[in-house]
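Private note to self, pasted from the team thread so I don't lose it. Backbone tokens:
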């Protein structure tokens, strides 16, 4: 559903960042649904054409080739949506860290950490901002698997980099590796979307372990 601002705490910057993240994801989720529906419709049309023209070898062959093409397009589309989803997550966490840097006047900056991606942001929140532990929760375990999956897609064009990743992807997030290549289905991307949403909700509701550290409202910080 489209996020409604009234469902978020407008006095808490963390809640506003979460709202912004949900807002960005609304378009992506709609695109995923639209793509899946369009591909299924194209496959259905071509199968029906092939069945109705089974005695016409040329039409039958062309239609079935089209079916194969759309079956090949689907995993590529869902892979690209996963990468987009991950980048939106990374940007939201970085935004949270950067706001903390500014309004808490932190000496250690996000860019000072040597880690990369979501891991760097979570380390910053735990060690520098001093939020309650994030990595102890099961949602972080899912995110590490999704992060590895993302890296295999980005750096290896979907080939599995580590031998144990094949079983891990299947057991942890239901993603199969077929003939050495990652294959992401519509069902996979929906499940990953849910894992990430749970993780982000968890991150942005963590309290500060140091009670003297408070994330002030934007207007107060700017006054």
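Design output:
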């Amino acid at each position: 559903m489209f996020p409604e601002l009234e469902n978020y705490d407008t006095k808490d910057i963390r809640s506003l960042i979460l709202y912004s993240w949900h807002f960005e994801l609304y378009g992506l989720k709609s695109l995923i649904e639209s793509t899946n529906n369009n591909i299924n419709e194209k496959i259905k049309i071509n199968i029906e054409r092939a069945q109705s023209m089974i005695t016409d070898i040329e039409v039958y062959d062309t239609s079935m080739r089209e079916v194969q093409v759309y079956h090949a397009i689907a995993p590529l589309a869902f892979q690209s949506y996963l990468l987009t989803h991950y980048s939106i997550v990374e940007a939201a966490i970085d935004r949270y860290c950067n706001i903390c840097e500014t309004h808490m006047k932190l000496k250690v900056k996000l860019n000072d950490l040597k880690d990369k991606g979501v891991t760097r942001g979570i380390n910053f929140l735990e060690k520098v901002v001093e939020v309650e532990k994030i990595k102890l929760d099961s949602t972080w375990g899912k995110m590490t698997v999704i992060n590895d999956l993302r890296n295999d897609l980005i750096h290896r064009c979907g080939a599995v980099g580590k031998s144990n990743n094949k079983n891990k992807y299947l057991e942890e997030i239901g993603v199969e590796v077929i003939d050495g290549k990652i294959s992401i289905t519509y069902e996979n991307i929906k499940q990953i979307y849910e894992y990430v949403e749970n993780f982000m909700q968890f991150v942005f509701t963590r309290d500060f372990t140091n009670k003297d550290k408070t994330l002030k409202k934007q207007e107060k910080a700017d006054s």
